[in-house]
Every structure is written in C-alpha cells, then in structure tokens.
Specification:
The protein is of the alpha/beta class and about 325 residues long. The protein has 2 domains: about 210 residues, Alpha-Beta Complex (DHBP synthase), CATH 3.90.870.10; about 80 residues, no CATH class. It is built from 10 helices and 15 strands. The two termini are about 35 Å apart. Bound molecules: adenosine monophosphate and magnesium ion.
C-alpha cells in the first residue's frame, strides 16, 4: 500500500521521513509548481533504475535532476556557460530546465547514456525542502506511468503508480499545470526541446536568438531528442482535436466537448466544458480536466484546437501529443 502524507510546511516531519527513504534508495513522489514528480537519489543508479521500472519508462528517455539552487548545479556540469548563469538568476527557482554538458558525477542512467544532463530548480516549497533535507540532487520525472497524463494531484499519483512508490507527499494541486520549459544549452545556439511555462520570447530577450527544435511541438515529432515520443501525456479516453466552434453531431456514446472561449450549441447528452481564452489558465487546468473526464468515464473527448500564437505553444504541444495515435 502506498502511503500518502499531507505536508503542511517546510518543517513538516513527513519531509524528514521522505529524505530517509530517498537516502535508502527508495522512491518518493512530491509536488512541484509544474506537476508531481517521482523522486529518487539522482546520484544512485539503482535508485534511478527503480524510477524507470515504476514508470515503465524506456531506458532511452533521460531524467531531469532537481537541485535546490544554482550552486547545487555546479558539481553536476562540466561547463556553466554565461547563458546558464543569466537564466538561473532570472528563473530559478522556477519551471525552466537547462540541458548542459554533464560532469562525471552524473550516473549514465540519468543521462540515458548521453553526454548531457538536464537540470531544474523547482520553486514549490515542498520540493525545495525535500531536496535540502535530502542533501543530494533528486532525479524526478513526472509521477505517472510512461505516456499517461501527468499528475497535478497526489491522488493522480496514487492511482497511476499505486504500490510502486514508497511515499507520496501531498501538497495539494500543482500551480503551472504543464511540465517545465526545457532549453538545451549544450550546443552552439540555445534550443528549446520542450515548450512550457517560460515563453520563447522571454528567453530570446535575455539570450538573443533561440531555436525551437522542430520536433518540440506535438505530432510529427521524431524521436531525435531523447524522450520526445509522439504520443505522450495522454488520457485513457480518445482525444480528438477539432476547429473552434465545430461542435458535434448527435451521438449515443458518452462524449465530452471542450470549447475554448465559447461553446457551440451541443446535442443533448454531450457534456460541454468551457475553458477561458487564456493560455495560462488553460495550462493550469488542462491535465486536471482530462483526469476528471477520464474518471467520469468518458471514452471520447472532443476538444477545440487552441489558437496558433506563441502564448499557446505549450498547450498546443501537449494536446497534439495527447491526441496522437498509439504506436504499434
Ligand atoms: P519529464 O518526464 O517530464 O521529467 O521530462 C524529462 C524530459 O527531459 C525527457 O523526456 C527529455 O525530453 C528531457 N531530457 C532530460 N534529460 C535530458 C538530456 N540530458 N538531454 C536532453 N533532453 C533531456
Ligand atoms: Mg513525463
């Protein structure tokens, strides 16, 4: 049985217990400002192997190491370029992950055998307190089975990973709702590998030109960058994307229709859900909504495509992946 413990603040005794479990090579799920993470001692290869086993995660998909501050990142990299210094100062703690050349301290399994390591400094007070109590970097991908929806509530972790986790720290609903922006600083030019809460325009204002990896946005993504499977972040229900205002013909099946900014007239029996025309608000709500519709038993979710501008990049990416067909 997985234990779930509410954490009320940075001095909660549950954090000491969690740090003990992590030091012993166990798994602890914890809230961050993006989604819940499945944490293990990031410098212990056997502990990290347990993350892969619990998630059913392919060994080709590297994991992000979480540190308490920029100082904690230094022993993990062989180079800390000026761009990293600027970004860490501006965004850490926060939802920006930096990919940098790894130091020999980083186990191969964390890097999926590659030369670089992804580093993030989470802002959530529980995540911060846990990393500090543990005193080592935490490997922590999202706390869900591979390819499924990311968890924004402790209960989502419990139902996706069940007994595979030693302890779940319950810090209530997460804030940003979508995974961190991932920026690769290991090459010649900064490159976004995954769009997220930090928008490209802000990064460009600080760094100059930033590339967006062509596979970074949704369907059609090839597996060039590690872990960027085309189908990902998916609910159990079949998710279809339609043009704004498209509506639905009458159907006997239990269907939910999600509109953005407005809802068309829907046939009787269809559950209509209205989301605001506000990218940040939709990002914060999206996974929780898909979890709710899954739990309510809808086998089909029809959702309007979000607008095409940059503010919606991360939401568009997740929806395209969530609606991609399962691969054979
Ligand atoms: P998550 O499962 O949300 O923790 O996301 C982890 C993702 O970060 C992976 O799927 C990769 O796309 C990316 N990532 C992690 N480590 C690296 C790395 N060393 N190089 C490039 N991308 C990485
Ligand atoms: Mg994930």
């Amino acid at each position: 049985m997985t234990r779930l413990r509410k954490v009320t603040g940075p001095n909660d005794p549950a954090l000491r217990e969690a740090a003990e479990i992590l030091r012993g090579g166990g798994l602890v799920a914890f809230p961050t400002e993006t989604v819940y993470g499945l944490g293990a001692d990031g410098l212990n290869p056997e502990a990290v192997a347990r993350i892969y086993a619990a998630k059913g995660r392919p060994a080709t998909n590297p994991v992000i190491l979480h540190v308490a501050d920029a100082e904690g990142a230094q022993p993990l990299v062989s180079r800390w370029p000026e761009a990293a210094r600027i970004l860490a100062e501006r965004y850490w703690p926060g939802p920006l992950t930096l990919v940098l050349p790894a130091s020999p301290l980083v186990p191969s399994i964390v890097r999926a055998g590659g030369p670089s390591v992804a580093l993030r400094c989470p802002a959530h007070p529980v995540a911060q307190a846990l990393i500090r109590a543990m005193g080592r970097p935490l490997a922590a991908p999202s706390a869900n089975r591979s390819q499924q929806l990311s968890p924004t509530l402790a209960e989502h972790v419990a139902s996706s990973l069940g007994g595979a986790v030693d302890l779940i720290l319950d810090g209530g609903p997460t804030q940003a709702g979508l995974e961190s922006t991932i920026l690769d600083l290991s090459g010649n030019r900064p490159r976004i590998l995954r769009p997220g809460p930090v928008p490209p325009a802000e990064l460009e204002a600080l760094l100059g030109p930033v590339d967006i990896w062509e596979g970074a946005i949704g369907a059609g993504a090839r597996q060039e960058a590690p872990g960027m499977a085309e189908r990902h972040y998916a609910p159990r229900a079949r998710l279809e994307l339609v043009a704004p205002g498209a509506g639905l013909p009458p159907t006997p099946d239990p269907v939910a229709y999600v509109g953005i900014g407005a809802l068309p007239v829907l046939p009787p029996g269809v559950r209509g859900v209205l989301l605001p025309l506000d990218a940040e608000a939709v990002a914060a709500r999206l996974y929780a909504l898909l979890h709710e519709l899954d739990d309510a038993g809808f086998a089909r979710i029809v959702m309007e495509r979000p607008p095409g501008d940059e503010a919606w990049l991360a939401v568009r990416d997740r929806l395209q992946r969530a609606s991609a067909k399962e691969m054979a």
